[in-house]
């Protein structure tokens, strides 16, 4: 995993138990059939690289790890590391491994907005929206939390999702329509659930 516009670290998982000298190895990193990085018998070689990776990659030979600078959402996917050994003149593959890159962009803190004007009257409807923007990957759910006294209700409404055609980042919005609470302080919050590994973001509560 890498954050958007940060450096991604892709490991070759090469134990090098034979302590082979780097000058006897050719190392390729590929994404599909596109060459991302090449080390040719100890020297970095740029002839075969795809233009979009030039000046964006470097190899840490001690850790057998490729650094991919300024990771973008288009860089997501599976990368293959192939190591060949110079063997009696013709190179022989001695190691291949695969690594999948996922890119993460932080969503903004969810924000609740009023969708109607005028004063609140009891038994009338309250219209709110909750929005969060600029994140990746697509979130799983938006939940409304309505708390008064010692009880909290959870409401899951439809979440509108849009994706920017250029940046590929997502914006999400959910709407809430409930009767105006009477005679008791009610706190309304909105929770954006991003998935098991990324957790949740919660809005500042709105007190009514």
From TrEMBL:
Protein name (database record): CD86 protein
Which Gene3D superfamilies would you find in this protein's record? Immunoglobulins
Origin superkingdom: Eukaryota
A Gene Ontology biological process noted in the UniProt record is: positive regulation of T cell proliferation
Q: Where in the cell is it found?
A: Cell membrane
Tell me if Disulfide bond is a UniProt keyword of this record: yes
Q: Which UniProt keywords apply?
A: Cell membrane, Disulfide bond, Glycoprotein, Immunoglobulin domain, Membrane, Receptor, Signal, Transmembrane, Transmembrane helix
Source species of the chain? Circaetus pectoralis (black-chested snake-eagle)
Which InterPro entries does this UniProt record tie to the protein?
A: CD80_C2-set, Ig-like_dom, Ig-like_dom_sf, Ig-like_fold, T-cell_Activation_Regulation
Q: Does the keyword Transmembrane apply?
A: yes
All copies of domain Ig-like, residue ranges: 1-97, 110-190
Question: One GO CC annotation, please?
Answer: external side of plasma membrane
Q: How does it sit in the membrane?
A: Single-pass type I membrane protein
